[in-house]
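Good morning C.,

I know you're traveling, so I'll keep this short. The sequence:
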Amino acid sequence: MFEFLLLFVVSMALLVYSSHSVINSSIKISEHFGVSELAVGYLLIAFSTSLPDFMVSVNASLMGDPGIVLGDVFGSTIANICLVLGAAALIKRISVQREHMLESAEILLVVSLLPLILLSRGVLNSIEGVILLCIFVLYCVFVFKDRFSLRIRAKVSHREWITSLVYFVAGMIVVVLSARCVIVSGEEIASYLGVPDIIIGFTLIAFGTTLPELAVDFTAIRRGHAALAVGDILGSCIINLTLVLGASALITPLKTSFETVSIAVSFLVGANVFLWYLLVKHGGISRAHGLAFVLVYISFLLIITFSALAVA
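The tokens, ready to paste straight into the viewer:
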């Protein structure tokens, strides 16, 4: 047990560190090609922060472990909204211009309902995976039409972008390998504790794969780019529920207890409705609202754990 716990911690640390390296490299590469002021830069950051979720879920799907896939996708999506935004708002009020984020928040609200519908039979098959991937493509089209600005420096030397490319490739390799180790060690921990894999996905793995968002968005908010942080969270959540979930379902059917998933989706929809309300009525997230988000996340962990244990 101790060996697998150590492997899990080390693998998760490598996954987070290498993902952060990929994020930094991605930004510099986009700057070199002059796209830092375009929506592709925003989409690139959102995808980069979702990279751990993508690699963990795809690897888990290849290894035939749908519990890890669904637990990580829903757990990290809820953590993005409730934990990341909530904790950030506790430190400093998050204020954004609602016209920049409202459409993305509405898209996320609609997208968050899809898993509840698609998983009503207790399985997500390849056809439904293709549907989710098509929705991801449509979302990309929407983002490219948006005029969202990263507001980051746009000059990167030739030598610097070559170095960034090397770090990007190396980081991707480490991400792939560490993601696989996270799954193997997570399965062994779940087996030792006698709990379903989905609980490990909802808790340990989901929290670990959310750390890149914590690092990037805390930095963005501290530097006065709250819109970038909220945009990254919204983008990452949509990517998780479309690209990550769709690609995983395309590899192998994802079977699970509908009761457990419905609880997770209910929390997700509720958190999205609350976020949408705050953006519309208050133009941001206050400290009191941030505390509410954090309490919702804690409640989710407790309820989903007891529910999954009861089903098992």
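Safe travels,
E.
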